[in-house]
Amino acid sequence: MAVSLPPTLGLSSAPDEIQHPHIKFSEWKFKLFRVRSFEKAPENAQAEKQDSSKGKSSLEQSPAVLDKAGGQKPALTQPALKPHPKFLKKSRDDRKARDKAMHQANLRHLCRICGNPFKADGHNRRYPVHGPVDGKTQVLLRKKEKRATSWPDLIAKVFRIDVKADVDSIHPTEFCHNCWSFMHRKFSSAPCEAYSPRNATMEWSSHTTSCDICHTARQGLKRKGHQPSAQLSKKLRTVIDRAREVRRRKRRAQARINNKELMKKIANCSKIHLSTQLLAVDFPAHFVKSISCQICEHILADPVETSCKHVFCRICILRCLKVMGSYCPSCRYPCFPTDLESPVKSFLSILNTLMVKCPAKECNEEVSLEKYNHHVSSHKESKETFVHINKGGRPRQHLLSLTRRAQKHRLRELKLQVKAFADKEEGGDVKSVCLTLFLLALRARNEHRQADELEAIMRGRGSGLQPAVCLAIRVNTFLSCSQYHKMYRTVKAITGRQIFQPLHALRTAEKALLPGYHPFEWQP
């Protein structure tokens, strides 16, 4: 039995017929592993060590063949497995479909108009973009005689956004309660201003690899699910808690400032209340704060005290209670208009004795707050005595015979007075003030028919058809009195407007058309 010797004994130079095949195989195997171990890179050492065991078993099963030129075995490389293109395309399509579904799921949580998430509302109230309006909005639109009956028409009218061509994979299908409230305030005649949820139109685009919507949602979920490590040191945890408390205080301070600015806009009393800068004496800051309203920060005018001992101007607190709710604007304690009381007399006496500067030009007088209104009215009376003097001495023409430019010039002073009254008492609604004045003038002159028509127009019902026109309709359509009365009641009940006149108005018009109604005397 032949014994295989190691190649270091010098037998490798013997002829092939003397050498045993095991000796040749052993020499080749040693050279193979020695060369590969010296040539391999350090970073691939571990991978090559694993491959060597596989190569050894395969070499022992198959005969070895040396390279003729160099006598070394070329490196064996295993070809990488490539999947079929059909399966690659299928996996790519599945990934695209999954990303598209996730994108649509993220769109369901966003508002179509402003882009804000629905969870910001707190109650998660949402409304469909397509379809008819809800009952409350329908009642409001019918009251204001608006033709829009669906959400797309209403959104296009208010926000100038066309949602009829929306695609579900690009655009959200619902909008938030904030946009719904903005549309209600836009059509209702509430005294408060309507604030738009966005300054610019929200742009929506199809899903891409760098989609902002999916990226924001993924970041939000990761940030929400991230929990602080339990191995944090006590000092680091204290720093984090302090930073969180500072951020919370900043948010509260900013919310308080925004709330104060909103209350100032609601009060809207800069033209009727006096600023604290008109005080003749430079009082300390805490004293100025005690005599000023905590809503508008002006000098208290007609002050009232709440049950929580805070003092406000009467008109400011009433407007805030009406718009923002029944609570004190300073401490949010429950407060109602019936709880308002007059402050103590000592406080009122101190307030009335404060000296203020007259804001009129060329008047440097300092008067007490109690006599301020009388002093300002004396300025107005002296101004009116000079304004209404007819310097030309020509006879004044009738107002209706003048041109429009001359009418504006003559009514300028009255227009300014009416505008000042409307700003002070009616929230700036000059039209309603003028119509009400005209209505009172018609009632005073016993022109009740014209007054009724004007009142119907003011209430949004319209004056309807004239009685003579209704009589002609009844005669030409061969309607009896009962048939016409049934039609009159049906139209009035459905539309809520008196388009046709009642039967007694038709009888009065018929009497005026019959012979002998108007007095006439023929003289040859």
Automatic annotation (TrEMBL):
Region (Disordered): 39-102
Protein EC: 2.3.2.27, 3.1.-.-
DNA-binding region: 392-459
Obligatory cofactor(s): Mn(2+); Mg(2+)
Gene3D superfamilies per UniProt: 6.10.140.510, Classic Zinc Finger (3.30.160.60), Zinc/RING finger domain, C3HC4 (zinc finger) (3.30.40.10)
An example Gene Ontology CC term for this record: endodeoxyribonuclease complex
Pfam families: RAG1, RAG1_DNA-bd, RAG1_imp_bd, zf-C3HC4, zf-RAG1
Primary localisation category: nucleus
Residue intervals of the RING-type domain: 293-332
SUPFAM superfamilies to which the protein is assigned, alphabetical: beta-beta-alpha zinc fingers, RING/U-box
Ranges of residues in domain RAG1-type: 354-383
Biased composition (Basic and acidic residues): 39-54, 90-102
GO molecular function, one term: protein homodimerization activity
Gene Ontology biological process terms in this record: adaptive immune response; chromatin organization; pre-B cell allelic exclusion; T cell differentiation in thymus; V(D)J recombination
Coiled coil: 236-263
Quaternary organization: Homodimer. Component of the RAG complex composed of core components RAG1 and RAG2, and associated component HMGB1 or HMGB2. Interacts with DCAF1, leading to recruitment of the CUL4A-RBX1-DDB1-DCAF1/VPRBP complex to ubiquitinate proteins and limit error-prone repair during V(D)J recombination.
Domain remarks in the Swiss-Prot or TrEMBL record: The NBD (nonamer binding) DNA-binding domain mediates the specific binding to the nonamer RSS motif by forming a tightly interwoven homodimer that binds and synapses 2 nonamer elements, with each NBD making contact with both DNA molecules. Each RSS is composed of well-conserved heptamer (consensus 5'-CACAGTG-3') and nonamer (consensus 5'-ACAAAAACC-3') sequences separated by a spacer of either 12 bp or 23 bp.
Function: Catalytic component of the RAG complex, a multiprotein complex that mediates the DNA cleavage phase during V(D)J recombination. V(D)J recombination assembles a diverse repertoire of immunoglobulin and T-cell receptor genes in developing B and T-lymphocytes through rearrangement of different V (variable), in some cases D (diversity), and J (joining) gene segments. In the RAG complex, RAG1 mediates the DNA-binding to the conserved recombination signal sequences (RSS) and catalyzes the DNA cleavage activities by introducing a double-strand break between the RSS and the adjacent coding segment.
Family listed: Belongs to the RAG1 family.
Protein name: V(D)J recombination-activating protein 1
